[in-house]
Amino acid sequence: MKLTLHDLKNQSAWERAGIALPSYDPAALAERTKAAPAWVHMGIGNIFRIFMGSIADQLVSEGWMDRGITCVEPFDFDVVDKIYRPCDNLALRVILRGDGTRDCRVLGAMTEAVKARAPEAEQWERVKEIFRQESLQMVSFTITEKGYALHQGDGSYFDFVKADIENGPEHAAGAMGIVAAMLLARYEAGGAPLALVSMDNCSKNGEVLRNAVLTMGREWKERGYADEGFLAYISDENRTAFPWTMIDKITPRPSEKIAADLREAGIEGMEPVITSKKTYIAPFANGEGPQYLVVEDHFPNGRPPLERAGVYMTDRETVNKSERMKVTACLNPIHSALGPYGCLLGYELFSDEMRDPQMLSLARLVGYGEGLPMAPDPGIFSPRAFLDEVLTERFPNPYLGDTTQRLSVDMSQIVGIRFGETIKAYVKRDGDAGALLGIPLAIAGWLRYLVGADDAGRPMELAPDPALPALREKLSGVTLGKPESLGEKAKGILSDAHIFRINLYEAGIGERIEEMLREELAGPGAVRRTLENYLA
């Protein structure tokens, strides 16, 4: 069997393999969607397919929605060519339960895959055609936090953003330039209302998206590519809305073991691929069962009944509290505390690390001890119950295959929200953050990780991070076995409010982090000894 519309006709074979099929006709759904698109998604990787794809599949299966999702890829076009088109836009969802069982289902609600690349005239025009349709109600995004960034650390535009600004909408190549160009096409076609819904894991994501789009619009107006009416259109949230969201679902890279098991079950072509843009993807997507999506209910052109698929539809304040609860207290800080330490201690799988007594102690300290007291209560679910589920069910799940390396990606971009906000909350309450222990230990572990040698002294590959060269340069000369080599070198990082959203010395914990880091640099085994010392 292959994951194609043709092979889905052999229903009994899929049933024997333990894989559920759509109860609807994916081909007919695709035709209806192409004629009158209602939901577009940009950034069509793993989290989109297993989460939003599942939402749409459920809504279509239960009769709440009669159209699927139009998939638009603004960055990695290999995903369209190597995954979507060979599989007729179908995806195989594999939910990994903690007891080792799996829930496998073919998803058919992703109905068209288009590459938003200006040089490909046919594809570019197709995306504009979609955005011109009055039927379009929402455009959702999973393009990672980096996808919204326009500015470098010094405040200047990235080169690709400069190019999009100077060359205008018809030559846009960056994600935010493409979005602004599509909104301009919609405005010129009559300006029907629309909601643009970031579902990326960043604070106040709707505001981040709105600011980026408005910036592109203003720059194009100054250069004559757009008029004042376009700025009015994208500025009016009753015409172009940017709802805030909170999203949560652990979705590791596609598992080689699952690919092998699917082949054993008779399904061909399941091998994961690494694209030219370093996307790890496969015809299937694997992830945990629990998932949370909280969405500000502001859709000026209507919306699908997302609440019928378990989405919390609420107000902006509740979304903000949910996001801060998760990102600053009850989940993401624990990931960022344990990811680098897991690499240092030789753990590949995060679930294995969660069985380490010191690592479990650090997780509980960062979560229950330091994060939870500052966590806002969103009211729609309990922060303590959420954290209980994280630490007792979700993180220990040995079948997810989540890696410590993945949890260490882009640390410089995320420690500000994941640790910095809690640090600031303690400073506001107490005058300084001296009461904290777990978060300083986590930051020390990250800096020790940046040295590039594990706790046994072996060279260690570091996870991707756009600031990695600059951070490594600041720590140049720091040597395992020579704690004195640290000197003053950590100060350039720990005092950087752009990284942590606060100067850690002014917060009263900079010197303590330096002390912890020196202890971890004492030699092979020093990381373990330091953890035992502080977490006893």
From TrEMBL:
Catalysis performed (reactions): D-mannitol 1-phosphate + NAD(+) = beta-D-fructose 6-phosphate + NADH + H(+)
UniProt-listed Gene3D superfamilies: N-(1-d-carboxylethyl)-l-norvaline Dehydrogenase, domain 2, NAD(P)-binding Rossmann-like Domain
Annotated PANTHER family: MANNITOL DEHYDROGENASE 2-RELATED, MANNITOL DEHYDROGENASE DSF1-RELATED
Entry superkingdom: Bacteria
Residue stretches making up the Mannitol dehydrogenase N-terminal domain: 40-257
Name used for this protein in its record: Mannitol dehydrogenase family protein
Swiss-Prot/TrEMBL keywords: Oxidoreductase
UniProt source species: Candidatus Enterocloster excrementipullorum
Domain Mannitol dehydrogenase C-terminal: 321-475
Keyword hit for Kinase: no
Gene Ontology MF annotations: mannitol-1-phosphate 5-dehydrogenase activity
Transmembrane annotation, as ranges: none
Family annotation (Pfam families): Mannitol_dh, Mannitol_dh_C
Keyword set includes S-adenosyl-L-methionine: no
